[in-house]
Design a protein that fits this description.
single chain; mainly alpha; about 65% helix
Length: about 170
């Protein structure tokens, strides 16, 4: 993920060197705002994928109930979509407001409530392990971006040039 962010910063700097007025960046911003049609098709594909995954998981669960001693297992890997992340984040926020996050850790009740909220919103195949793994993944990604742009990497936006650059470290 860090490489993608760095590549975007390099492209940003290149565009700034090619056309230093804001018209080129404004044009890119307009194009991104008009990208709703493509986003909708992506959302439809993600929805289809989620529905297919949920159906497969429910079939696997039913098969496991019929033949509990068989080697059939329920899939633990889940591909998270933006919509799923939104629902997950909303459920986490609700649990934090209820006080189910103590000393920086989620309580067992919080995890149970988050899973239940996700299931009630249509994500029937979500388990506590899915939620925990997603939280770890989001935390790792946040840490990478935070470190990259909070000066820990020495890489930041120079406000005077409006370009990303490596800050010179002070000696002494």
């Amino acid at each position: 993920m860090t490489n993608i962010i760095l590549a975007c910063c390099i492209l940003h700097n290149f565009l700034r060197g090619v056309d230093n007025d804001d018209s080129l960046l404004a044009e890119v911003d307009r194009e991104l705002m008009e990208e709703d049609v493509e986003t909708m098709s992506t959302q439809v594909r993600e929805e289809d994928y989620r529905e297919g995954s949920n159906l497969r998981d429910s079939i696997a669960t039913e098969m496991k109930a019929i033949a509990p001693d068989s080697s059939i297992g329920v899939r633990e890997f889940t591909k998270w979509t933006d919509e799923m992340d939104f629902r997950h984040s909303s459920a986490m926020l609700d649990e934090a407001r209820l006080g189910n996050r103590v000393d920086g850790s989620w309580t067992t009740q919080a995890y149970n409530n988050i899973v239940e909220a996700l299931r009630q919103s249509g994500l029937i195949g979500i388990t506590k392990n899915n939620v925990k793994n997603r939280q770890k993944s989001l935390k790792d990604r946040w840490r990478e971006v935070h470190d990259l742009f909070n000066g820990l990497s020495g890489f930041a936006l120079d406000e005077s040039t409006r370009r990303f650059s490596r800050r010179a470290r002070s000696m002494g």
